[in-house]
Amino acid sequence: MPVGFLSKAQRDNYGRYTGDPSSDDLARYFHLDDADLALIAAKRGEHNRLGFAVQLGTVRYLGTFLEDPVDVPNEVVKTLSEQLYIDSLDGFSAYRSGEQRWQHAAEIRIHFGYADITEPKVGWRLGRWLYALCWTGTDRPGILFERATTWLVTHKVLLPGCTTLERFVARLRNRVEERLWRLLVHDVSSVQQAALEALLNGSVGRSSPLDRLRTPPVIVSGIALVQAVLRLRSVRDLGIRIPAAARIPASRVAALARFASAAKVTALLKLPNPRRLATLVAFVHCLEASAQDDALDVLVALLSEMFRDALRAQKKTRLRTLKDLDQAAATLARACQMVLDPELPDVELRTRLFEKISRETLAQALAGVNTLIRPGNAVYHLELENKYRTARRFVPILVEHVQFGSNAAGEPVVAGLKWLHENMLRKVPVRPAPREVIGKSWQSHVFREEGAVDLHAYTLCLLDKLQTAIKRRDVFVTPSWRYADPRAGLLQGAEWVAARPIVCRTLGLSMTPEPTLAALATELDRSYRAVCIFRP
Fold first, then answer.
1. Is the residue at 445 inside a domain?
2. Where among 79, 95, 112 does a domain terminate?
3. What DSSP assignment string belongs to 419-485?
4. Could you tell me if 73 and 108 lie in one domain?
């Protein structure tokens, strides 16, 4: 990392006034208490007393003494002079050339306990604090410089030279980076290193393997889903795992991965070997979750499109057959009207009916109605049969390479997916299919007359339930950024027991649920009775 990372504005504003302090700053840093006033009162001459007060307020506010102690905003001089009851400021400018200014600065350092960064204990404390910030965060060097400046002012450490603090931050940040790189590549074998380096090798004018890996799917289709799953498999085949024992903050790994995702291959090739290898390790580690999310994005979009198209086709077919259904229904209505005619004797019914409507016309109308009517639970199931070929392309590879987890509500879906993984390519299943996932609307299509399960209908039923379960997060995958277990961030066990009092106190809730539940029950009962009273 280059040492000169500060902007011109940061250099110009370091240890200097950048305008009038705010009213809060004036009250915090330039207020003189009784001890301050007693110390200042011992100085001879108004200009010395005011100069001492100005230097005291300046070192509290800026963390350093100015080369020209009089070069301060007028608001500062006015605030301090009012507290010292000094009306005339005519002699104040002479303070800059007097010897008292140096004695006052030394007295302020000793009396108020100001230290130098060169003191071992001070440098160690600042280094440890900055090291923790660098290790757990991803702040830019300029931000770390400003935070270090604030720390120095807060802990009464006189600001060093701008370049001195800049080099201090740069060296410490380099130490953190080097440690991060060492930990990331510590468990990477030589074979894995060669595979990672091979990601950057590509022919001239063609994309490298890294470019192909970091390119997500751009269309929604069965083939695109297969390619997305194969991309996930390629990432897993690299076998990159960051051990939990390394305790590397996820934010640092994600920052390296983002750089590898956006940088050109030529830029990655120019990196030093440890940094380049660590960047590729972080990229592959994070890419598994991203690639799995991309595959599920395509899956959800594809299933939505499949079922939406099936519903649209069913409605279209239904509208197209309404004319024929109306004609057949009209014929049957005429026949029923004659059957229900009380003046027509039963012995003459069939003769008179066939005189009005021929047997062939009536049979044709009845057959047409039986053909065109749909049971109420059919909806789009019949049209979905045409979508099985699309599902057949991606379901086997999906259930093989994507491992789904679930909560209690999603367990039937996961059980059905495991059964598909075992039996979809078999002619005879090794065990019966789990039936808990089959809802009432699917039962008439999945179960055959002899009680067996139709594989096509079962697969489509399972995909329908899978789509709903993913949206509800009843089914999830690991690792993932968007489809992870929503319960993963919840406190459990001893951690929850320790945090429970604080959480309950913050939310204003009782440690025991009974009072809250009783209050809710009372409110519900009161609301119910109020509605019943005003019910018309």
1. yes
2. 112
3. HHHHHTT-SS-SSPPP-TT--HHHHHHHB-TTSPBPHHHHHHHHHHHHHHHHHHTSEEESS-SSSS-
4. yes
Tell me how many domains the chain contains. Answer: 4
Angstrom distance (rounded) from CA 258 to CA 287: 10
Residue 332 belongs to some domain of the structure = no
Model pLDDT, residue 322: 65
CA–CA gap between residue 349 and residue 434 (Å, rounded): 54
- End-to-end CA gap in the chain: 77
**H/E run at residue 12:** helix 8-13
pLDDT at 379: 44
Residue at 134 is within a domain? yes
What integer pLDDT is reported at residue 153 of this predicted model? 93
Whether residues 124 and 107 share a domain: the answer is no
Cβ partners under 8 Å of residue 341, min gap 6: none
* Residue of 98, 44, 45, 43 whose CA lies nearest to 70: 98
Its pTM stands at: 0.75
Q: Please give the Cα distance from 443 to 427 (Å, whole number).
A: 22
What's the pLDDT score for residue 79? 92
112, 137, 158 - which closes a domain: 112
Over the chain (536 residues), the average pLDDT of each successive run of 10 is 77 90 92 92 89 92 91 91 86 85 92 91 93 91 93 93 92 93 91 91 72 90 93 92 84 92 90 92 93 94 86 69 70 71 69 72 72 53 74 91 92 92 83 88 79 85 92 92 88 86 86 88 91 69
Domain membership of residue 416 as a residue range: 403-477
Instruction: Give CA separation, 474 vs 47, 265, 405, 414, 490, in Å.
Output: 75, 39, 8, 10, 16
The answer to whether residue 292 is domain-embedded is no
Query: 473 and 513 in one domain?
Result: no
Q: Which H or E run includes 231?
A: helix 222-237
On whether both 85 and 137 belong to a single domain, the answer is no
Q: In terms of Cα–Cα distance, which of 174, 164, 63, 176 is closest to 123? A: 164
Q: pLDDT value at position 1?
A: 47
Question: Whole-angstrom Cα distance, residue 385 to residue 387?
Answer: 5
Q: Give the separation between CA 479 and CA 242, rounded to whole angstroms.
A: 13
